[in-house]
Design goal:
alpha+beta, 2 domains, Outer membrane efflux proteins (OEP), 10 strands, 60% helix, two-stranded parallel ribbon, six-stranded antiparallel beta sheet, 11 helices
Length: 495
């Protein structure tokens, strides 16, 4: 078997797009698609998004009316009560035994504009005495309307309305970016298996050639045209080729097992990767466009905005806590007391009005509150400057990634041409060696050149596709189709 025959056979196998019996033939897009659906990384990212989704739903629920029912269905009391008699300024002890129960219905609504809370409630209570008059009475608070408001100038609901939507949008962008991160990992593992397959091909070809050359060398040694040193070198090359094939088989098993594990496939599934033969040579990414898209779409930038808002919130809260603190609450309602439930809801003639104002004024705290405010402002300045530097570094990273990607297509074409030239050169060299016009040294050099050219070509393909998906990961933008990357979030929720 000659090297040329083996190489032709391998290239033919790489062009097959349907699965052989017992073998799963996968292209790079198919590997990425499988990884995005069933890898453990995809499972983790999906559940992280769902956690963020329900956290955002919880925030939105705080803005809606909340209905609750409360009840104390049974309370029994049998004790001695101490009463003060003002007429003779003495204490009197009396036995009491009663049963009480009550229930309430309450609707609460947070007011985002002011940060206050509005509530409407209705209550019904029952009390039965076993001593004295032994009466059963009912007390109905038909309706009570109340409002509570802090007057320190801090509105937590307003700050939540700024931070929580941004936090959820960051989670959505993180999920989209995670799919591109999976694509980068899948590409690396795909080419690890391609490298292993290429090594098998090179090692198999080298073994066939080494065996052929050793047989030729033995024949020439018999007629005196090859020295003993050259014959021993042929034999050594044959032994090294066998060892190289053994190592290549081990590398293939390791790379295949690694890819199977990443894709969540059974260890017995036999995967063969179809080497990508097409690149988008015309695709050139504009640096300014990439930076603009990354600053708009990248979740790291949104997370930085969130950190800035959170620091502003902390400073505002600290400032509000350090000054005059006032709480105002007021409520008004109608109630009635009667011997029956129906009568307790008839002709309410008793008004219940409650108004409370609470004040807290710091006088002496030995500089504690001032220190807290200064510390909050200092922490904010640290975050502001950190974010500025992070954005400079991030834009620089995008710039370098785009510049590197834009030269990769030329690198792939050049390495592909070098691979072709090296193959043609080796074919010529081995033919000339067989007719005795070249020595073994030049043959070995030609073989090394061919192996290095093949590895360089695969390496350039790997760099191109990894760089391609890294650009998408940074910008969350598809530069081939000119559209922002997205995800089917409704499908995730319905699974």
């Amino acid at each position: 078997m000659t090297r040329i025959l083996i190489l032709i056979t391998f290239i033919a196998l790489c062009k097959v797009t349907t699965a052989k019996e017992g073998v799963m033939m996968l292209t790079l897009p198919e590997v990425i698609d499988l990884a995005s659906k069933q890898s453990i990384d995809a499972f983790k990212q999906q559940n992280m998004y769902l956690a963020s989704y329900w956290e955002f739903k919880y925030y939105r629920a705080d803005k809606l009316p909340f209905l609750s029912i409360g009840a104390n269905p049974f309370s029994y009391n049998n004790s001695i009560r101490q009463d003060y008699i003002p007429q003779d300024q003495s204490w009197q002890y009396s036995q009491q035994e009663n049963i009480t129960s009550n229930a309430s219905l309450r609707v609460t609504q947070n007011i985002g504009l002011t940060g206050g809370r509005f509530d409407v409630s209705s209550d019904l209570g029952m009390s039965r005495n076993f001593l004295g008059d032994k009466q059963t009475t009912f007390s109905a608070n038909q309706i009570s309307i109340g409002y509570r408001q802090k007057l320190n100038g801090y509105n937590s609901l307003r700050w939540k309305s700024k931070i929580e939507p941004l936090k959820f949008e960051t989670a959505r962008k993180n999920f989209i970016q995670s799919k591109e991160d999976i694509a980068v990992k899948a590409t690396s593992k795909f080419f690890e298996l391609v490298d292993a397959q290429i090594e098998i091909n090179i090692s198999t070809t080298n073994l066939a050639n080494a065996d052929t050359l050793y047989q030729i060398g033995k024949g020439r040694y018999q007629v005196g045209t090859v020295t003993q040193d050259e014959l021993l070198n042929f034999e050594l090359n044959l032994m090294n080729a066998r060892l190289a094939l053994t190592r290549a088989n081990q590398g293939l098993l390791r790379a295949r097992s690694d890819l199977n594990s990443f894709l969540g496939l059974d260890k017995n599934v036999m995967i063969e990767c179809i080497m990508p033969v097409k690149i988008t040579s015309a695709l050139q990414v504009n640096v300014e466009d990439a930076i603009q898209k990354s600053m708009t779409n990248n979740p790291d930038v949104l997370s930085q905005d969130q950190r800035l808002l959170e620091q502003d919130n902390i400073v505002r809260l600290t400032k509000a806590q350090n000054g005059l603190s006032a709480d105002v609450s007021a409520s008004a309602g109608l109630n009635q007391k009667a011997l029956t439930i129906s009568d307790s809801y008839q002709n309410p003639n008793r008004f219940q009005n409650i108004a409370i104002i609470g004040l807290s004024v710091p006088i002496i705290d030995w500089g504690k509150r001032k220190g807290q405010l200064l510390m909050a402002k200092s922490n904010r300045e640290v975050v502001v400057n950190s974010v500025k530097q992070e954005r400079i570094d991030f834009q620089q990273s995008v710039l370098m990634s785009v510049l590197e990607f834009n030269i990769q297509s030329d690198q792939v074409m050049n390495s592909a041409r070098a691979d072709t030239i090296a193959q043609l050169g080796f074919d010529v060299t081995i033919r000339r060696f067989k007719i005795g016009k070249l020595d073994v040294t030049k043959l070995n050099l030609a073989r090394n050149d061919l192996e290095n050219a093949r590895r360089a070509y695969i390496s350039s393909l790997r760099k191109y596709w990894v760089s391609y998906y890294q650009i998408r990961q940074l910008t969350l933008f598809d530069f081939e189709n000119g559209t922002d990357l997205t995800a089917d979030f409704d499908k995730i929720l319905n699974q």
